[in-house]
Amino acid sequence: MKAHDGMYIGGAWRPAAGQDVIEVVNPADEQVVGTVPAGTAEDVDAAVRAAREALPGWAATPPAERAARLSALRDGLAARADEIAATVTAELGSPLKFSQAVHAAVPIAVAGSYAELAATYAFEEKIGNSVVHHEPIGVVAAITPWNYPLHQIVAKVAPALAAGCTVVVKPAEDTPLVARLLAEAVHEAGVPAGVFNLVTGLGPVAGQALAEHPGVDLVSFTGSTAVGRRIAAIAAGQIKKVALELGGKSANVILPSADLAKAVNVGVANVMSNSGQTCSAWTRMLVHRDRYDEAVDLAATAAAKYGERIGPVVNAKQRDRVRGYIEKGVAEGARLVAGGPGAPRETGFFVHPTVFADVTEDMTIAQEEIFGPVLSILRYEDEEDALRIANGTVYGLAGAVWAGDEAEAVAFARRMETGQVDINGGRFNPLAPFGGYKQSGVGRELGVHGLAEYLQTKSLQF
């Protein structure tokens, strides 16, 4: 176990204001792998003050220089790729190969994308007799979740720095260790003191203090819809901008003309990835009634292969929550075809890869975000019925459509009430905007649209 002292504030590691610590537990074996300080409102205030002091200088820094610092940050993360992967595996329980391929590699790519954008973005444009300036919005509070602990931070920090903002990061208390590696990389990249600050702590204490702080101009939060509502309410009192990436209950719509085996197998893999702890996971599979039984058999077979391949969920509370949803599905009449609520291992916070058939749209497991390796398969009568079911939740974060003809899939996707749709297994694009409709959030992350969230617009008329 490694004890980590201090917060990264004003370009240096400094002692925390209090003495309390947070134990970080490996969810695979339930052993403590490290500790971090439990930050207080005093720590948050010091970090925000450092960010405000650094703001004028960083905002005035030429975009090319900001791009150079981001390039150095990308290189620093790349040099730490193995350590990043090992750290995420220890604190999240993710299998090492997945940590290497996703938890380490994706943040490196995102940091690189913003290095390029900072150098090429038109921060000033002429519209008629006006010159329009795109300026940094100010001090950013980045409050991040545990499921993709480094990616979710970099997806906020990189565009904020590219825009000329300064940042205070409060990582999730379950997975704070990898954020310290980011702070080290930021320091080595020559980012000026106070531009990036890191405060570890509990959400109701450090997170709330950060969201409430009058020195913060934008709160960027990724997490549950319930906490998002709370942050939005706090921000409303100060007329403060928020960017919220919240829950999802995404539909994977398999049209009758699709390659059923491919659509089902990719769909199951999507749900099981990261132990189901992905807000954009396609947790509702919609299949035409004529192909439904075949799809159920394929999904059950595919899920069985993941029994020894996926990691645990993040903690005991989350494990019990997911198992509770599985029990609820059974109680409401859904048919288990793979997995179940039992404990697959004696040690660790593991959940069986689970597939439900005969799920109806009014069931709890078809409406609420479970955030675990649980797939619900629903049948539909025709295309209009499929669209109604797909759009029939309070969420709208992501989704997928499969069809033999790409144009058919695209036509359906255009009518889905969701922020991102994969067509016939389309690959993740770190430059494409990511964010949701309805209760899945406000704003967008990644690419040029993610950069725009951190900019304020001013027009000068001549």
TrEMBL record:
PROSITE patterns: ALDEHYDE_DEHYDR_GLU (PS00687)
PANTHER family for the chain: ALDEHYDE DEHYDROGENASE, ALDEHYDE DEHYDROGENASE-RELATED
CDD domains documented for this protein: ALDH_CddD_SSP0762
Database matches in InterPro entries: Ald_DH/histidinol_DH (IPR016161), Ald_DH_C (IPR016163), Ald_DH_CS_GLU (IPR029510), Ald_DH_N (IPR016162), Aldehyde_DH_dom (IPR015590)
Active site: E245
Protein's name in the database: Aldehyde dehydrogenase family protein
Sequence ranges assigned to domain Aldehyde dehydrogenase in this UniProt record: 13-459
